[in-house]
Design goal:
Elements: E1 4-9, H1 23-40, H2 45-48, E2 53-64, E3 74-84, E4 89-97, E5 103-115, E6 121-122, H3 125-128, E7 153-160, H4 174-182, H5 187-190, E8 193-202, E9 211-218, E10 225-231, E11 237-247
Antiparallel strand pairs: 1-3, 2-5, 2-8, 3-4, 4-5, 5-6, 7-9, 8-11, 9-10, 10-11
Length: 261
């Protein structure tokens, strides 16, 4: 097995109020398909926890095609591992419309293993002999994207984490951060625009009953691009998100700008 594919039908939980596929659902499909692939190899989260280890995702990069994907459509998510290092595994992905093969999004994610007690990175060498890695299928170099400098602060908002934000490890789910971040972007912008590029860096874990501060910044000299920084109460960065947007195809493009706070 070199690649793994799974088909998902877009449900109400995966769509926004305009019935479009949400960016957080793309992250979900990629993570779920990769977890399914790793479970066939005996390397899923429930396999590693027996050794007191846990998977974490540290980076996600996706380029979105200018195609709208709506509720009830089926999408096929294909994942494969394309590069490894002693501490990291890079998995590429491609999401297409089921049946037609029309490309929706593609990119890669970076995975590491933590010791469940010490929370230190654990080496992946032992599993690499059993891990299919197809370097020839890599969609591009896996270099950590350096985010541009922040411009004006457009908005900030606090979020008190609750049980609905958590994953099965008891951490705030990494997809929750993306939804928290997008709450700072006005509907007047989101209603008329769709993501073109999304890059997420997860930096520090957070838990239930913490207050997270989400800061939304403009990106100088780049129209339709934003930087989100989500910080813990002591100022420690938890997540950074860089996004670029294009006019949504099912609306007449409207020149809209964010109101600065």
């Amino acid at each position: 097995m070199t690649t793994y594919s799974h088909t998902y039908s877009i449900t109400a939980a995966d769509m926004d109020k305009d019935y479009r596929l949400m960016p957080s659902a793309v992250v979900l499909y990629v993570q779920d398909a990769w977890a399914r692939m790793m479970s066939t190899l005996g390397m899923a989260a429930f396999d590693l926890i027996k050794e007191n280890k846990i998977w974490i995702i540290t980076e996600f990069n996706a380029h979105f095609e200018p195609v709208e994907t709506f509720w009830s459509e089926a999408v096929e998510t294909t994942v494969w591992n394309s590069e490894t290092s002693p501490l990291r595994i890079y998995s590429d992905f491609r999401i297409t419309k089921a049946g037609t093969g029309q490309l929706i999004a593609q990119g890669y994610a970076c995975w590491s293993i933590l010791d469940a007690d010490t929370k230190r990175l654990a080496r992946t060498d032992a599993m690499q002999q059993s891990l299919p890695v197809v370097e020839d299928l890599a969609l591009g170099p896996h270099k950590k994207l350096r985010f541009p400098a922040t411009g004006d602060l457009l908005k900030q908002a606090d979020h008190h984490t609750n049980s609905l934000d958590l994953d099965f490890n008891g951490h705030v789910n990494n997809r929750s951060y993306l939804n928290i971040a997008l709450l700072t972007v006005p509907d007047t912008f989101l209603n008329h625009n769709a993501p073109a590029h999304l890059s997420i860096h997860w930096l520090h874990e957070t838990f239930e009953n913490e207050t997270l501060r989400c800061l939304l910044f403009a990106v100088p000299d780049t129209q339709g691009a934003f930087l989100h920084r989500i910080e813990k109460e002591d100022g420690t960065p938890a997540v950074e998100i860089y996004s670029e947007w294009r006019p949504a195809t099912h609306y007449t493009p409207v020149a809209e700008t964010l109101h600065r706070t």
